[in-house]
Design goal:
450 residues; alpha+beta; four-stranded mixed β-sheet; three-stranded antiparallel β-sheet; 12 helices; 20% strand
Length: 450
């Protein structure tokens, strides 16, 4: 044994109890300080246990962590639950064994699936729709780029008194993972997934939005619309190219409505053929054929041909045959074509002033105009030298105005024919009076002096 160890042992053996305690403290305190400093400068690493937990789900997780004696802390930034990195996976496994954490959809799902006695049909329909929305949202969240999804369905009630059931619509709100984006194909996949899981729901009626409210994949319906408009214009051009040389440009009009497929469909047919070998039938050949119907395929054509003249039955039949050939109509597909003949509008006849005004109401007593004696003789070209027809026209105009005012005061409706005749006579008289306003002014002066 070295000499310094022997001296230290003799010193401790000869020391009093108090001195021995002091010597022990001199050894323990530095070691404790070193350990504390190490832990202070090297704290344990904590990791987030679960992200995006609601307050209810977070409370359930904390209660179970305390029961399992697993240390945890709450993040000062967002309040997330954190556990030591060494116990992260063990904590997740032990929580999963107890069915935690539960999302709000899961909790609502358990409530909806609980047995209820005396529930109405409306309540049952709402529970079914809610369960369908939750299932669709879970399926959408399985996509790699989608972190969270929520589906809202609008399912109108089907009535037996309606010929066509109202269409169903849907809105999907998605939150993407950091740095992820959805292209047009992925948006179409979400639309197809939702449309395939809901009755009477078309893919074009499914809108996909992000948390900012931006519509995703909105260019697809516009592309289909542009394709339909281009097809209709081309069909109209073909029909007019066939009918115009025969009828003329101003005597024929064509309107075409094209209906296109709004989704892609696939049909798989499997056939098994029996092959006769040595007098025995054996199913040896198997044929599988898949037919793909792309989106935007022509489904049906509805066309109308309007002839701007009084066409005969032979002309209408000929126009129908020519338009049908030009449009390429297929009756088996459900295409329709209608031909209408409209007679040309006749020119409106000019209303003429009648010889005498028919009395449609009670006769009106008109006071005759006495002659006026001027103070001085007027020249022959004076404005008071009025033609007889002008005086008659002015008097007729004033008489018609008086009759109209009297009829309006009586508030008695007149027949349609009488009103039309009265309006025509009034227009003709007004035109003659406006042609020479000086005559009307002179007549009024004469009546005022009477």
């Amino acid at each position: 044994m070295p000499g310094w160890l022997s001296s230290l042992r003799d010193l401790i053996a000869d020391a009093s109890p108090v001195r021995r305690a002091m010597l022990a403290l001199l050894v323990i305190l530095p070691l404790t300080a070193l350990a504390a400093a190490y832990l202070w400068f090297n704290p344990p690493i904590y990791r987030v246990l679960y992200t995006q937990l609601s307050d209810r789900a977070g409370g359930e997780v904390i209660a179970v962590l305390e029961q399992l004696d697993i240390p945890y802390r709450l993040s000062a930034a967002d309040g997330a639950i954190e556990v030591p990195a060494a116990q992260l996976h063990a904590a997740r496994y032990r929580l999963a064994a107890r069915g935690l954490p539960k999302s709000d959809e899961d909790a609502q799902d358990e409530v909806d699936r609980a047995p209820r006695f005396g529930a109405s049909s409306l309540q049952e329909q709402q529970r079914f729709q809610r369960a369908l929305e939750i299932d669709l949202a879970r399926s959408i969240q399985k996509l790699e780029a989608v972190e969270l999804a929520r589906v809202h369905l609008a399912l109108p009630k089907v009535s037996p008194f309606l010929r066509d059931a109202p269409p169903a619509t849907a809105a999907v709100l998605v939150r993407l993972r950091p740095g992820a984006q959805l292209d047009a194909g992925q948006v179409a996949t979400i639309q197809t997934l939702v449309a395939a899981g809901v009755p009477r729901l078309k893919r074009t009626e499914v809108q996909v939005l992000d948390p900012r409210g931006v519509l995703l994949g909105g260019a697809a319906p516009e592309a289909v619309q542009s394709q339909r408009l281009a097809l209709e214009q081309d069909l109209v051009r073909r029909a007019l190219a066939a009918l115009t040389p025969w009828l003329g440009e101003d005597r024929v009009s064509v309107q075409v409505t094209a209906i296109l497929e709004d989704s892609e469909t696939r049909q798989t047919v499997e056939r098994v053929q029996n092959v006769v070998v040595a007098g025995q039938a054996r199913p040896l050949e198997k044929t599988v054929r898949t037919t793909r119907v792309p989106e935007g395929r022509l489904q049906r054509i509805n066309a109308i041909v309007i002839l701007g003249f009084d066409a005969s039955a032979n002309d209408q039949w000929r126009a129908r045959q020519m338009a049908s050939q030009a449009l390429g109509l297929d009756p088996a597909r459900g295409d329709t074509l209608r031909v209408y003949a409209l007679p040309a509008a006749a020119p409106k006849p000019q209303a003429e002033l009648p010889a005498e005004i028919p009395q449609t109401t009670a006769p009106v007593q008109v006071r005759p105009v006495p002659p006026v004696q001027p103070a001085k003789p007027l020249p022959a070209a004076s404005s008071f030298a009025l033609p007889q027809w002008s005086l008659a026209a002015a008097a007729a105009a004033l008489m018609l105005l008086a009759v109209s005012a009297w009829r309006r005061a009586r508030h008695r409706p007149a027949a349609a024919a009488e009103v039309a005749d009265f309006d025509a006579e009034l227009d003709a008289t007004r035109s003659r009076v406006l042609a020479d306003p000086r005559v009307t002014a002179d007549v009024i002066k004469l009546w005022m002096r009477a």
